[in-house]
Design brief:
The protein has about 140 residues and is α+β, with helices and mostly antiparallel strands. It folds into two domains: about 60 residues, Alpha-Beta Plaits, CATH 3.30.70; about 50 residues, no CATH class. Helices cover about 15% and strands about 25% of the residues. The protein is built from three helices and eight strands. The strands form three sheets. It has a three-stranded antiparallel β-sheet, with helices on one face. It has a three-stranded antiparallel β-sheet with strand order 4-5-8, with no helix packed on it. It has a two-stranded antiparallel ribbon with strand order 6-7.
Length: about 140
């Protein structure tokens, strides 16, 4: 799957969506349906809510597919240091790894992930080693 990145802004905050990371938890649209509505295009309309509500909802995204950037902030060039990593199996779902990671693929390429990464536990993902939500379709139970 290509590393597509889409951005949506309300002028104050920009929502960054990386579809290849999405595990279709539905947290976004069940928690803030006025902004996240997958039956419409564009499916993200940040103008329909406040920046604080958007940020609160994005922080609930379990896969890291949704993130945000405050439009008035200058990105830091520093690499975070001293941060710990948390590994958390989701019930009947992916293995969630919280922290900055470098993943080496069989072909030798390295993919860097920040914040939260969802790894497949069901074996059915078409985007291994990452979760693509297939566990829901195949009824994975742990």
């Amino acid at each position: 799957m290509k590393d597509i990145v889409k951005k949506y802004s309300n002028g104050e905050v920009t929502i960054v969506w990386k579809p290849s990371l999405c595990i279709h938890s539905r947290n976004c649209f069940t928690g803030l349906g006025e902004v996240f509505h997958p039956q419409e295009l564009p499916w993200i309309t940040p103008q329909r809510s406040t920046t604080d509500k958007i940020i609160d909802q994005i922080k609930k995204c379990p896969s890291g597919a949704l993130s945000y950037v405050m439009n008035n902030e200058v990105p830091s060039a520093e690499e975070p240091t001293g941060q710990s990593t948390l590994v958390e199996p989701s019930p009947n779902g992916p293995l969630m790894v919280h922290g900055t990671l470098a993943i080496k693929k069989p072909d030798g390429t390295i993919t860097r992930k920040e914040k939260v990464t969802a790894f497949c536990r069901c074996g059915g993902s078409a985007n291994k080693p990452f979760c693509d939500g297939t566990h829901r379709k195949i009824g994975f139970q742990d």
